[in-house]
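In line with agreed milestones, the collection of sequences with tokenised folds has grown. A representative record is reproduced below.
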Amino acid sequence: MRSPDTPDAADPGLSISALERLQVQVHGQEGAPPAGTVRSDTLAAEVPVALVFNGISHAVMMATPRDLEDFALGFALSEGILDRAEDCRGIEVEAIDARAAGLPEGMPGIEVRLEISTRSFERLKGRRRSMAGRTGCGICGVESFAALDLSAQPVAPRDWIARVDLPTVLRAFAALPAQQALNREAGSIHAAGWADLEGRLLAVLEDVGRHNALDKLLGRLARADLLAAPGFVLMSSRGSHELVRKCARLGIAAMATISAPTAMGVRVALLDGVRLWGLCRAPRGVLYAPGAGAG
């Protein structure tokens, strides 16, 4: 399992690339003229993606236009809209031109339409939550403190949890840059990866938003029936509480992040029994929560 080799490829059937190339003017380089130097630069695409469930738009997220079926399924599962991947009957992805989407010229949108089970849809309609997501935003649109949904969702204890140790975590992080194809081109894109208990990196999904990257990974794992497999998530970001919660909700027992977690991220990990590593930068890393089953 890995991302496609062509870094700027969009999803099949989409005409919107994950990367954009623009002419820019660089100033301050040694030997350059006072007016600067013109060159081509590569930037990450950031596109409004509407998630539509049984014909009703539920959320609009700013996302990288790739792996959007994985993203939609992972979002639906990690946000509790679906209980299991089988509750999704089908997914369609369609690019919408700017005029039809009511967006400024040159800013197209994407609709991802999911057909979900009647039980899931009835529950969705009963939720009083409407989200207009921004890049890096995890809880936009909640209406009350209770809507944050911070109650415990403990993962099952794992007898292998202690094997997610520092050497294993660092081995996976060492392999991550080579699989960050989009970030290598644009330099502004997060990654979520899945590694086994040997630290082998088996899947990497990328997006301008860290939450989106994780949802893409969770969707990919769900479609491959690997959510219960031994292993851990690694993130090119901090360990915020909503990332930990998304993993716990789907039974992922361990997470490692390249930056430090937030204090609430650690509290949620302890509450839910998720093993949480942070500041994973060789040769060191910090174990903030041991995880259920660590003894």
